[in-house]
TrEMBL record:
Highest rank taxon of the organism: Bacteria
InterPro entries from the UniProt entry: AlphaKG_dependent_hydroxylases, TauD-like_sf, TauD/TfdA-like
Name of the protein described by the UniProt record: TauD/TfdA-like domain-containing protein
PANTHER family found in the cross-reference section: GAMMA-BUTYROBETAINE HYDROXYLASE-RELATED, TAUD_TFDA-LIKE DOMAIN-CONTAINING PROTEIN
Keywords: Antibiotic biosynthesis, Iron, Oxidoreductase
Sequence ranges assigned to domain TauD/TfdA-like in this UniProt record: 29-315
Pfam families: TauD
Phylogenetic placement of the source organism: Bacteria, Bacillati, Actinomycetota, Actinomycetes, Kitasatosporales
Species of provenance: Streptomyces spongiicola
Region listing for Disordered, in residue ranges: 1-21
Amino acid sequence: MTSPAPATLPEATVQPGRTPILPIDPPDDTSSWIAAHTTALRSLVATHGAILIRGLGLRGADQAAAALRELAGGALMRDTEAFAVREAYRDGVYSSTAWPPNQPMCMHHELSYALTFPGMMMFACLTAPASGGVTGVSDASAVLEALPAAMVERFEREGWLLTRSYNDEIGASWAEAFGTGDRGAVEEYCRANAIDFAWQSDGALRTRQRRSAVVRHPATGVRCWFNQIAFLNEWTLAPEVREYLVDVYGEDGLPFNTRYGNGDPVGEDVVATLNEVYEAHTAREPWQPGDLMLVDNIRTAHSREPYDGPREILVGMSDPQQFSGTSSVSAEAAR
């Protein structure tokens, strides 16, 4: 039987502006250590929203994958509706999202545009970059409280809309995102997951899905800002990248974009405010090889900062959660 966390683990190091860290002595057997401490580690995630375990010494994809599966309690979630390609290492174990190293990935909650999304994210560092590349974390309830009330009220009332134009040049193709080249299977998935879709004459696919911007945490009932409104919006892109994409694909054909739930554009000022609030509530800790970070995906947003040099972070998703029903704005949205 697993012992209570205080008796088996050291105290986590918690400092302002830094990701909470659990320093441990390197175990003789990583898998056995994970198995013995899974309950305690999950308790730390519940307490802090995210925890970085330092000293575990994960090496190689096989060892990291075994640790992630142990923490997940078995099978890991499959990455569906991905906006960019990931390399699959093992069943449910993926590379970080393919995203230019010189471009940041701003704060977001993984798959918050899907009806089924992970309750926990797990990141295993095999190779730390020479500089940068931090996976920042941000408390979603604190972000919600810091946002302008009028902005929150509108997004709560209307939800947010994700529009996607799948092509074979930018981001994941529709076959890669949905894991099949069968149009019928894609259409069936979209209908089951409240996604409007339209095939284009050139074979491309366009989709629209409306989701809640604020949800209550299933364990605590705390209201959380839970979405990817800023990250997948055109105004978060570097200006030269946005200009190129608009020139090539047009305003309505961008690979991805976000809007208010009624279809109105989200202004550059709104996106700037969101990113400024995220930045004010970001905690960081540079990666070291062998680190393992666990993140409550509902309570805590995460990001990825620009970096130099090779960077290898393996990703696992677990604890699947669902918006209730298939309505365009979930009934779980805070009222």
